[in-house]
Description:
The chain has helices at residues 20-30, 49-60; strands at residues 41-44, 63-66. It is of the alpha+beta class. The longest helix is centred in the last third of the chain and has 12 residues, at 49-60.
Amino acid sequence: MVEIFEETAFRNMSKVFDDRFHAGELLAEKLVEYKDEKDVYLLAIPAGGVPIAFIISQILNVHLDLAVTRKLHIP
């Protein structure tokens, strides 16, 4: 089941994060229950998701891998 998190303090803010690393730190705080779990894999989508996922994987000590994607063009 998917659970949606909403941080009400971020409502109506024009700038929530200082940078992608800051976003990763804040997201890792929300995912702390997965810390040191050996069966957890974090997938990052290049390019913007990689810095965020890297910080999360370091803080939570979980596996990190890339999910390389390609746009599908409509003929």
